[in-house]
């Protein structure tokens, strides 16, 4: 922390208040957001991070790069918040005026920091590029404030404690903002008692049970836990997340975990995992633990089923590959699905889903094969298989099956649901395989 | 429009001001946005639509479902705006309080509308479901205001003209909001002179030229056009959009189009299209016009290259399919890439990219084959091919080639750039094929 000679500034926030009572606002800056050229991923990402640490963001304002607008918005946010976070406007170009606007509102001076200059210059040397003079704009910090070093870009984050409040300024690019936030901002906020150090809730990710059925099933457990427990449901296609928390802190984290364990026992296979892992990640972990491999064949989902695994690290260890085939010719040629089968039953049928699942597993020498074939869009065969009809096939070392889905919705939703159903089916089959082999014990996969 | 007995309400906005001087604010409501459970796609989508019709959204506020918060935000936005658009909070559940909050700010009464009730009841009948009583909440409209019928959901949009301003309330689900906005809201706003009826700018989508090189190339044309012309650049990986507009209206749309035509002549193949078509759509149009087909093989992009075509309608007409193969075994088995080639040159090599492009085209009986193989993530062979090294292969009726890309960036960016480069290369090859055959004339593809 820099020396501080402004009276009343740098006072620490009152640490005796619960974090859920804190007022956080997010100011996302940039004409590109208002013109829809860039999605406001910062709101989603920062909102999620704060939520996991016990704070619901109270408000998000997206404003233009105009200096007067920034001053007006920040003045308003600053007056009523405990913490204001800004994103964007820290770059080297002339339309980045955020620093100056913030300095005006805080009544602070901007000072040149040779250490930031050195870090910027070093970055340019490492990339073998010449530093243009406008980059030095990024070497200014607030006279009474800290610098949050940025390992992935030239503009560092800035941190100010003043008037019992905190102001955090973050660079716009997500690959710079996100590590800066988790590695520096969250720990600093936790030290000041403004967010929880650990997770604020226990999340159970479930699949295959509707929200109301889930509530009916779990409510007796929640009733026994008493009114200190707060339960929130968040529904996605074929997947519902249940969050247990105790906003006033009457239940400890171990007590929340005990309630969750009771739910888990009741949910059995319908529980995907604790926490935030995707179904693809859970499937990947199960496949790797059992030393099994997967291949997929898909038509209407057009590569999206294959692509869900691309975010999982070490994908080539368990994922043999995928075949995307829209047309029957391709199904026949590459996967050897018999022409007679396609003629008799059609490409959108139980028979074809089964043939695809087995063929792709055999062709790519995988233990498991997943297949999706259907009409997601508006075409479809109106009588037999209207749009929204999808068949999922699963080939495993135990056999091969298919199931039919009917779901009336917009095309991307139909596809998303089909992919989730397929991944969930594979997960259940892998759980059963593990319990047959007794290794690894199923609960081990839920530790995270 | 309902009868109107409130003095001063229902006055029309002054139609003599240019639309670019209009103040539009967007109020996106919902705790799920602030908790990061749902992305704020409304800002991006509505911002883009307004931008295309001459208005830059001045501000977007995301607030909780709390009634007091909604009243406070709306009061502030309403005071300084010509148009306020709200999204969300129109549903049947008890946390949807937007209607009441808006009525309070406008000093209006909510009245039950039997026509809305009939539409909701009809919807339930069509879906064979029972209407629960809470759905009738959605049958209320403002006493002095209009109803915007919603064909894709139960909650209609609401429209109020009052105090020379317009308030538009839209339901939250994107598949309901978006058609409502384009089919009803934009035409109404245009009639009131609040947005342009047509497009506000001419957009040229270019590929393969950096932003500064593009500027250097086009500036002489822009200089000749004079200071009535406004030029904006928007850079994406391997792709830059150039927007020509005349904010004060001194240049007419035909004059802007003439400037764009001059640029097009100079840009030649580097111009992808006018407007907003994706590279995949442009490739698809070229393939269909020439009655040609495509197949793709990909490793590090894991299905994303295949998936870019899934948004193009009639994809099965030109897209034969895709093979996603992370591991060498799969490359050999399914595509017959020789083991000796993989051993000698590795899977990330010119040789492999060429073999993959040709093999996938031959295996799937396509005219064109595109292949992507590389190290997008952190693995990579440090000496020869560090992370960020990607080879793209293109097989065409004229031959087969590969090119090497080096791009140091986060993994998704590396992949996005590789996909864009591949699609752009295919586009150029298809343009050359068309000009060799002289059908169809290349300019025809730029008409949109």
Core attributes:
14 helices, Molybdenum Cofactor Biosythetic Enzyme, Chain A, about 450 residues, disordered N terminus, Alpha-Beta Plaits, about 40% helix, homodimer, 5-stranded mixed sheet, 3 domains, Maf protein, alpha/beta, disordered C terminus, globular
What is the gist of this entry?
The structure is a homodimer of 448-residue chains. Chain A has 448 residues and is α/β, with parallel strands linked by helices. In chain A, 38% of the residues lie in helices and 22% in strands.
Topology (elements, then pairings):
Two copies of one chain form a homodimer.
Chain A: E1 24-29, H1 31-34, H2 41-52, E2 59-63, H3 67-80, E3 83-87, H4 98-106, E4 110-112, H5 114-126, E5 140-142, E6 146-148, E7 157-162, E8 165-170, H6 174-191, E9 201-207, H7 211-225, E10 230-236, E11 239-245, H8 253-267, E12 271-274, H9 279-289, E13 294-298, H10 304-307, E14 319-324, H11 328-335, H12 339-345, H13 350-363, E15 368-375, E16 389-396, E17 399-406, H14 411-437
Parallel strand pairs in A: 1-2, 1-3, 3-8, 13-14, 13-15
Antiparallel strand pairs in A: 4-5, 6-7, 7-8, 9-11, 9-12, 10-11, 15-16, 16-17
What does this structure look like?
The structure is a homodimer of 448-residue chains. By secondary structure, chain A is α/β, with parallel strands linked by helices. Chain A folds into three domains: 19-191, MoaB/Mog-like domain (Molybdenum Cofactor Biosythetic Enzyme, Chain A, 3-Layer(aba) Sandwich); 201-274, Alpha-Beta Plaits (2-Layer Sandwich), CATH 3.30.70; 279-446, CinA-like (Maf protein, Alpha-Beta Complex), CATH 3.90.950. The first copy, chain A, is 38% helix and 22% strand. Chain A has 14 helices and 17 strands. Chain A has helices spanning 31-34, 41-52, 67-80, 98-106, 114-126, 174-191, 211-225, 253-267, 279-289, 304-307, 328-335, 339-345, 350-363, 411-437, and strands at residues 24-29, 59-63, 83-87, 110-112, 140-142, 146-148, 157-162, 165-170, 201-207, 230-236, 239-245, 271-274, 294-298, 319-324, 368-375, 389-396, 399-406. The first copy, chain A, has a six-stranded mixed sheet with strand order 2-1-3-8-7-6, sandwiched between helices. Chain A is globular. Mean pLDDT of chain A is 88; it is low at 1-9 and 441-448. At the A-B interface, helix 1, helix 2, strand 2, helix 10 and strand 14 of A face helix 1, helix 2, strand 2, helix 10 and strand 14 of B.
């Amino acid at each position: 922390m820099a020396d501080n000679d402004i009276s009343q500034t740098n006072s620490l926030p009152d640490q005796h208040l619960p974090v859920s009572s804190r007022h956080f606002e997010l100011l996302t800056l940039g004409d590109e957001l208002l013109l829809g050229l860039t999605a406001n991923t910062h709101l989603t990402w920062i909102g999620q991070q704060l939520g996991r640490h016990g704070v619901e963001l109270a408000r998000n304002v997206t404003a233009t790069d105009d200096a007067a607008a920034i001053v007006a918005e920040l003045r308003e946010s600053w007056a009523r918040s405990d913490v204001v976070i800004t994103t964007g406007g820290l770059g080297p170009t002339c339309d980045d005026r955020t620093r100056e606007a913030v300095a005006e509102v805080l009544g602070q001076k901007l000072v040149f920091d040779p250490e930031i200059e050195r870090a910027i210059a070093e970055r340019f040397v490492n990339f073998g590029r010449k530093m243009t003079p406008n980059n030095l704009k990024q070497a200014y910090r607030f006279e009474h404030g800290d610098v949050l070093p940025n390992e992935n870009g030239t503009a560092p984050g800035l941190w100010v404690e003043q008037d019992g409040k905190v102001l955090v300024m973050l660079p716009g690019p997500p690959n710079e903002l996100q590590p800066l936030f988790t590695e520096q901002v969250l720990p600093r906020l936790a030290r000041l008692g403004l967010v929880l150090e650990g997770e604020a809730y226990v999340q159970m990710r479930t699949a295959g049970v509707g929200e109301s059925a889930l509530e009916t099933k779990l409510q007796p457990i929640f009733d026994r836990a008493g009114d200190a427990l707060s339960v929130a449901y968040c529904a996605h296609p074929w997947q519902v997340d249940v969050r247990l928390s105790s906003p006033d802190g009457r239940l400890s984290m171990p007590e929340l975990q005990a309630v969750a364990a009771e739910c888990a026992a009741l949910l059995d296979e319908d529980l995907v995992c604790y926490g935030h892992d995707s179904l693809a990640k859970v499937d990947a972990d199960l496949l790797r633990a059992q030393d099994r491999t997967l291949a997929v064949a898909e038509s209407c989902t057009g590569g999206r089923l294959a692509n869900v695994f691309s975010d999982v690290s070490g994908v080539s260890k368990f994922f043999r590959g995928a075949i995307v085939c829209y047309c029957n010719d391709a199904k026949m040629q590459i996967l050897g699905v018999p022409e007679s089968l396609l003629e008799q039953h059609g490409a959108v049928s139980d028979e074809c889903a089964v043939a695809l699942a087995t063929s792709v597993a055999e062709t790519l020498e995988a233990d498991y094969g997943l297949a999706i074939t259907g009409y997601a869009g508006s075409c479809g065969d109106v009588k037999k298989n209207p749009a929204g009809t999808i068949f999922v096939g699963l080939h495993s070392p135990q056999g091969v099956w298919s199931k039919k889905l009917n779901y009336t919705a917009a095309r991307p939703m139909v596809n998303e649901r089909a992919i989730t159903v397929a991944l969930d089916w594979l997960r259940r089959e892998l759980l059963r395989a593990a319990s047959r082999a007794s290794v690894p014990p199923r609960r081990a996969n839920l530790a995270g």
